[in-house]
Write a structure and sequence with these properties.
Layout (H helix, E strand, L loop, with lengths): L6 E8 L2 E8 L3 H27 L3 H36 L2 H16 L7 H14 L7 E5 L5 E3 L9 H5 L1 H7 L6 E8 L3 H4 L4 E9 L8 E8 H11 L4 E5 L5 E4 L9 H4 E3 L4 E4 L2 E9 L6 E7 L10 H42 L14 H40 L3 H17 L3 H18 L5 E3 H19 L3 E7 L7 E3 L3 H12 L5 E10 L2 E8 L6 H8 L8 H13 L4 E6 L5 E8 L7 H4 L5
Parallel strand pairs: 15-17
Antiparallel strand pairs: 1-2, 3-4, 3-7, 5-6, 6-7, 8-9, 8-13, 10-11, 11-12, 12-13, 14-16, 17-18, 18-20, 19-20
InterPro entries: Bact_2-comp_sensor_kinase (IPR050640), HAMP_dom (IPR003660), HATPase_C_sf (IPR036890), HATPase_dom (IPR003594), Sig_transdc_His_kin_internal (IPR010559)
Protein name: HAMP domain-containing protein
Pfam families: HAMP (PF00672), HATPase_c (PF02518), His_kinase (PF06580)
Length: about 600
């Protein structure tokens, strides 16, 4: 039967009735091929359109990209310089030792007259300042304390440092909230010994407090402007790079003559990208630094970008079409090959759906599809095996039911017959025979009654006593059975016929069918019921005891079967332990959880007939 194709139905009215038009729905393979081709053609088509639209802007984009690249590298190094200054601020303000030394110097300077400096603290501070300024190039550090004490990492010889207090930005900053960072920017070098070599400094300042609610102290960090200019000169090839503050002042420039000029006064901006500056046209790009409020600005001369890509669109269009045709053919072939196992699995599943369980996909391989095919075939094998197993079990069940009907007899007939024999024996004063028949009747009733898997402990012990009476009568022995059961264990339920195989083992193998004593004890221990069966028989050697523990059968159901039965019912932690030695008998200890998850004895009721 051919595979059924899915359809998508469209209902529309034509004339006086509804007309149904069925449109075939694409299969999984067709959907995959169409989707793949769309994913291939759409990017190509969009690329062609965007290339055509933006070809006229290629010149500007290329220059801007080059400038962005240069500014990206410059931003990295300039930001490193500024980050070193920020780290120096933090190293002074948040270093507990530094604050302690500053407080000592401050207190000593304030309390002495004339003002004196604590040279130990000053030395410690100087060492820390030297360490902070060691990395990241030359940095001038000035700490202005509220009492007029100045601490620097440079020589103040011949410097009129009091002029710093007269500058407007310093007075403004001292009155600002604590932890205020002031991006001062460009200023003349206030260090006379270095002014000729570095006429300009790039400065950042921050306020802090030595004590809570004390007047502001000030940290001033300055770097020579030349450090920034060297970065621009190294990483700016064609474009002109400059560092500009929010007011438009050029803080640093590849051309040192431009430092300090106002960019807004000399630049004519025509649009967002192209500007005119000093009579030339430039492509302008701006980038805000990672740290602070300053920004980098790149001016790329338009004349430096002379290469136009006039045939780019045509070349790209031809290449895109050729590649699309080539990759479409390759993709179509590969997708058909890759989806063959899926299609085979689909056809197999359709045949299974129609009831054919003998069909197999025969899809194999090391990939996910191969594993899926193998699993699908194994599943079909298992389904067939399970069907055969169910059929076999049904046949066996019918045979067992027939045998059960054939072998069924009325147990009450046997009990009534035995009771009649027992009454006749009593009438003839054969009390021993009557007692033996009574024990046999009780034991037979326990054997035939299988309604309850669990019985109370006292009932199981009563069954064992009847069994012992029959064994003594049979062998003409006198084996005494003693019981010591705690009162709180009598109603605890245990599996039926748990003790009888163990008593049989003790009677036959332990006492070797001779006179002796077998004892049964039971007690509670935490959440456990512990039962101990011991005899005073011949005992076992260590090797024989090991064989028994490893499951060597002894007699009847055997100790092994009883132990396995307990573990199946209660789990591995429970079961029995054996103790023996030659001439000292055998002791078997059973460990059972209280109730064992079963109903209690008083709910089950007595199992007697």
């Amino acid at each position: 039967m051919p595979a059924r194709l899915p359809f998508f139905a469209i209902v529309h009215q034509a004339g006086g009735g509804d007309e149904v038009m069925k449109i075939p729905v694409l299969g999984w393979r067709q959907k995959l091929i169409v989707t793949s081709l769309l994913c291939l053609v759409l990017p190509s088509l969009i690329t062609l359109i965007l290339t055509g639209v933006y070809t006229k802007d290629e010149l500007r984009s290329k220059a801007s990209a080059k400038a962005e690249q240069a500014m990206g590298v410059a931003d990295l190094y300039v930001s490193n310089l500024i980050r070193d200054m920020i780290n120096a601020f933090n190293g002074i303000q948040y270093d507990s030792e530094m604050i302690t030394y500053l407080r000592v110097a401050y207190n000593k300077y304030s309390s002495s007259e004339p003002h004196d400096i604590d040279f130990f603290s000053y030395k410690q501070i100087a060492e820390k300042l030297d360490h902070l300024s060691f990395f990241g190039g030359q940095t001038y550090i000035t700490i202005m304390l509220p009492n007029g004490l100045l601490i620097t990492n440079y020589s103040t010889y011949n410097n009129d440092m009091s002029s710093l207090y007269g500058q407007g930005w310093v007075r403004q900053l001292l009155e600002s909230p604590v932890n205020t960072t002031f991006w001062t920017g460009l200023q003349p070098n206030y260090i006379r010994l270095d002014a000729d070599r570095n006429p300009n400094l790039v400065t950042i300042a921050r306020t802090f407090q030595l004590y809570a609610n004390s007047p502001n102290a000030l940290i001033i960090l300055s770097k020579p402007e030349e450090q920034f200019r060297q970065v621009f000169a190294q990483y700016a090839a064609d474009p002109l790079l400059m560092l500009v503050d929010p007011g438009g002042t050029i803080i640093s420039h590849t051309d040192k003559d431009q430092v300090g000029l106002q960019l807004r006064d000399t630049m004519q901006e025509t649009d967002s990208d192209v500007v005119k500056w000093q009579g030339q046209e430039y492509i302008s790009t701006t980038r805000t630094l990672s740290y602070g409020v300053w920004s980098l600005r790149s001016l790329t001369p338009s004349r430096s970008v002379t290469a136009r890509i006039s045939n780019l669109f045509n070349y790209v269009s031809i290449l895109q079409i050729l590649f699309f045709l080539l990759f479409s053919l390759v993709l179509f072939y590969l997708l058909r090959q890759l989806t063959k196992p899926i299609m085979r699995l689909s056809r197999t599943a359709s045949k299974v759906e129609m009831g054919d369980l003998n069909v197999r996909s025969h899809v194999s391989g090391d990939d996910e599809i191969g594993h899926l095919g193998l699993a699908f075939d194994r599943m079909l094998d298992q389904v067939k095996a399970m069907i055969r197993q169910v059929e076999t079990e049904q046949n066996r069940k019918r045979m067992a039911e027939l045998e059960l009907l054939q072998a069924q007899i009325n147990p009450h007939f046997l009990f009534n017959t035995l009771n009649s024999i027992r009454l006749h024996a009593l009438l003839k004063e054969e009390e021993e025979i009557a007692a033996t028949i009574g024990s046999l009747s009780t034991l037979l009733r326990m054997t035939i009654n299988r309604n309850n898997e669990f019985v109370p402990l006292h009932e199981e012990v009563d069954t064992v006593e009847q069994y012992m009476r029959l064994m003594n009568f049979r062998h003409q022995d006198h084996v005494r059975l003693t019981t010591n059961l705690a009162s709180d264990t009598l109603l605890e339920c245990i599996p039926r016929f748990t003790l009888q195989p163990l008593i049989e083992n003790a009677y036959i193998h332990g006492l070797q069918q001779k006179n002796g004593e077998i004892s049964i004890s039971a007690w509670r221990r935490a959440h456990l019921l512990v039962i101990r069966i011991a005899d005073d028989g011949v005992g076992m050697t260590a090797s024989k005891l090991l064989e028994v523990r490893q499951g060597s059968p002894i007699s009847g159901i055997g100790i092994k079967n009883v132990n396995e039965r307990l573990k199946i019912i209660y789990g591995e932690p429970y079961g029995m332990e054996l103790e023996s030695a030659p001439g000292q008998g055998l002791a078997i200890t059973l460990t059972i959880p209280l109730n064992g998850g079963k109903e209690s004895a008083h709910v089950q009721g007595h199992t007697g007939g």
